[in-house]
């Protein structure tokens, strides 16, 4: 084992102060045997300029983390009809599919809000004296002791037993643990802007969270609470030199409107509305077989699954990851197991989940290829009907109701029976976290 020290305390560095990093801080703080710090490259914990969905599964975890109470109802938006999302034909406005949320408790209904609102709600539950901003990780080095040395751009360094890579889609921790892994441009560009709600009131956009679909692009309209309104779109832009378009670069109105020429007047008015819109070339990467490495690195959030915002639930996935990590470290501690065992169980729980999500993305890709391979080409309406049926379908709604707490309980039960059947001891092959404490206690008595 590479993770012990003489104090019985595990030193953990969390890299990144996004939803994954802040969630990790909350969960690790519940473990008295963990000494944690968060390192964030930005000069402040903040999220600017975008909206985010909070799905029922995410609300449940925000409750577990104590952060759900920090949302004020005026700062979130829920449609009055309790439908999560409406999918419309962008040319005719016809409603193709609308997902009701029967059976979902009112306080867990899907909501939209600004990412800053989510960040602040999480941050309120974090011991901020352990959050170090303006600390950009630039290098990870393995020490002979087995510990990991972290070097930061500002000259600071730290040596830890466990690194939690919560540093987003361009993760430096992932580069260290899986140097072969690459992300690349998906061929799609997002355009996003948040405007004052009253500024677009005259357009009479339906009071709903709405996708306006076309064969190659969609527009997304919804309120975010707090008097703000989100306009987001996604368009196929295969010709883009994505490396030259930095994240959040200003876009000319024509860059955006050219994708919506065949859409109904309301959609055209919305896309032509703001000249403040920014563009985001979307990057993604293949699935990692494992999200842990070297018994001392675990990837969480976008660092572990560079999906580029697919499913609109990345913050929720991040919280599921860190909930699992916290539970696994606690489980290992209680069962006299080491960090390696804890990380092994995290991977056992989370990697198959991501495999399922990537499989769904492959299905989406197949549908897309089918639409594009038709000769003569499908009409706007026929293509959109297939997209609504195959991609935005009820089949995938389990993702938003995913109960990680139950999944975790089942995983622990499975481990118990596996060890009973094998007649094995949980202690086998790994030094225990409790043993470290016992050893430290004995040492302090000498
Ligand atoms: C267009 C788009 C739409 C989306 N819509 C939704 C949605 O509706 N709902 C939803 O749940 N999710 C959505 N997502 C996904 C969601 O934004 C991410 O999944 C979520 O933010 C992941 O959180 P994270 O903490 O893993 O990563 P991030 O939020 O990216 O946070 C990573 C943090 O690490 C810091 N960092 C990076 N490198 C370093 C370093 N070297 N040293 C120190 N710090 C570092 C960054 O500054 C950042 O603060 C969307 C994503 C995109 C791109």
Question: Can you describe what's shown?
Answer:
Keywords: FAD, Flavoprotein, Oxidoreductase. Residues 11-329 form the FAD-binding domain. It holds the Pfam family FAD_binding_3. This is FAD-binding domain-containing protein. The chain folds into two domains: 10-47 and 116-182 and 289-385 and 401-416, FAD/NAD(P)-binding domain (3-Layer(bba) Sandwich), CATH 3.50.50; 184-284, D-Amino Acid Oxidase, Chain A, domain 2, CATH 3.30.9. 33% of the residues lie in helices and 24% in strands. It is built from twelve helices and 20 strands. A hairpin with a 4-residue loop joins strand 10 (148-152) and strand 11 (157-160). By secondary structure, it is α+β, with helices and mostly antiparallel strands. It is globular. An eight-stranded mixed beta sheet has the order 6-5-14-15-16-13-18-17, with helices on both faces. It has a six-stranded mixed beta sheet with strand order 8-2-1-12-20-19. The model is unreliable at 424-432 and 434-446 (pLDDT under 50). Helix 1 (19-28) packs parallel to helix 3. The structure holds flavin-adenine dinucleotide (FAD). Residues 15-21, 39-42, 52-53, 136-137, 166-168, 172, 190, 280, 301-303, 308-309, 312-316, 318 line the site of flavin-adenine dinucleotide (FAD).
């Amino acid at each position: 084992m590479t993770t012990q020290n003489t104090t019985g305390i595990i030193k953990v560095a969390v890299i990144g102060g996004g939803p994954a990093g802040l969630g990790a801080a909350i969960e690790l703080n519940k473990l008295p045997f963990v000494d944690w710090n968060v390192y964030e490259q930005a000069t402040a914990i903040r999220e600017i300029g975008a909206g985010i969905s909070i799905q029922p599964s995410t609300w449940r975890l925000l409750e577990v983390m104590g952060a759900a109470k920090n949302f004020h109802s005026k700062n979130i938006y829920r449609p009055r009809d309790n439908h999560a999302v409406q999918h419309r034909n962008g040319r005719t406005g016809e409603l193709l599919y609308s997902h009701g949320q029967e059976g979902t408790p009112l306080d867990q209904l899907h909501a939209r809000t600004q990412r800053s609102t989510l960040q602040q709600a999480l941050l309120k539950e974090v011991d901020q004296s352990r959050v170090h901003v303006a600390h950009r990780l630039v290098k990870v080095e393995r020490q002979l002791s087995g510990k990991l040395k972290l070097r930061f751009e500002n000259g600071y360094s730290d040596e830890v037993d466990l690194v939690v890579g919560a540093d987003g889609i361009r993760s430096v921790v992932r580069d260290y643990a899986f140097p072969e892994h690459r992300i690349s441009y998906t061929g799609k560009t997002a355009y996003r802007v948040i405007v004052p709600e009253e500024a677009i009131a005259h357009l009479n956009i339906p009071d709903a969270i709405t996708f306006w679909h076309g064969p190659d692009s969609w527009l997304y309209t919804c309120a975010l609470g707090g008097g703000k309104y989100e306009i987001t779109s996604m368009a196929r832009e295969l010709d883009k030199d994505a490396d030259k378009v930095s994240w959040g670069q200003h876009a000319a109105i024509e860059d955006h409107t050219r994708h919506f020429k065949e859409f109904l007047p309301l959609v055209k008015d919305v896309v032509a509305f703001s000249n403040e819109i920014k563009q985001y070339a979307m990057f993604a990467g293949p699935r990692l077989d494992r999200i842990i490495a070297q018994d001392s690195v675990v990837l969480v959030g976008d660092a572990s699954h560079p999906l580029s915002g697919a499913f609109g639930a990345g913050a929720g996935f991040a919280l599921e990851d860190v909930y699992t990590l916290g539970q696994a470290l606690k489980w290992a501690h209680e069962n006299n197991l080491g960090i390696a065992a804890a990380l092994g169980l995290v991977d056992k729980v989370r990697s198959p989940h991501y495999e399922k999500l990537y499989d769904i993305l492959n299905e989406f890709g197949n549908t897309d290829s089918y639409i594009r391979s038709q000769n003569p080409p499908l009409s706007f309406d026929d293509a959109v009907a297939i997209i609504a049926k195959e991609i935005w379908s009820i089949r995938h709604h389990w993702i938003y109701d995913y109960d990680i707490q139950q999944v975790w309980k089942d995983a622990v039960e499975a481990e118990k029976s596996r060890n009973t059947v094998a007649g094995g001891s949980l202690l086998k092959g790994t030094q225990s976290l409790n043993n470290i404490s016992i050893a430290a206690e004995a040492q302090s008595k000498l």
